[in-house]
Amino acid sequence: MDKVGILGGTFNPPHLGHLIIANEVMCSQGLDEVWFMPNQEPPHKEKSNAASNRDRIEMLKLAVDTHPGFKLELIELERQGPSFTYDTIKILKENYPQKQFYFIIGADMVEYLPKWHNIDKLLEMITFVGVQRPSYNLETSYSILYSEVPEMGISSSMIRSRLKKGGSIRYLVPDSIGNYIKENHLYES
pLDDT value at position 18? Predict the structure, then answer.
């Protein structure tokens, strides 16, 4: 049975922190692949400086193209309405019964697990893998795995803020994504 990690997020834009997390979890947990799963922009996130779904997909294609074990999974973008992880995993398990799924989450989401929709059923379907994020705690009463990753303060919102001010994002995103952002005038003020 193939072991597949899922790394979800808005990836607006994808950055080196995402790639490092995916690679570190893949290696430490012995995963065969990591699927990057972009989701719809949540209502609580700032919309004014966001890239389109098409641009986020194109940037993710550039990001995953550099690693043979990284793939793109668009199920969350293709679905309409609110998207709960439970519903997504249910569909993925039906579509890929030969895969064992590992859902990669940051410490911020580890703290939030008690509030997840159908968390008890979800824990029966997948294995969560928690990774440290600055200023968050990885402790939980739920049975999850942990992977050590280098702590970085890189975030998509920081990158968007720098670009809005005309700052440099060199070494924060792969060069191919930096070029895509520049060529398509994304995140400018």
Answer: 96
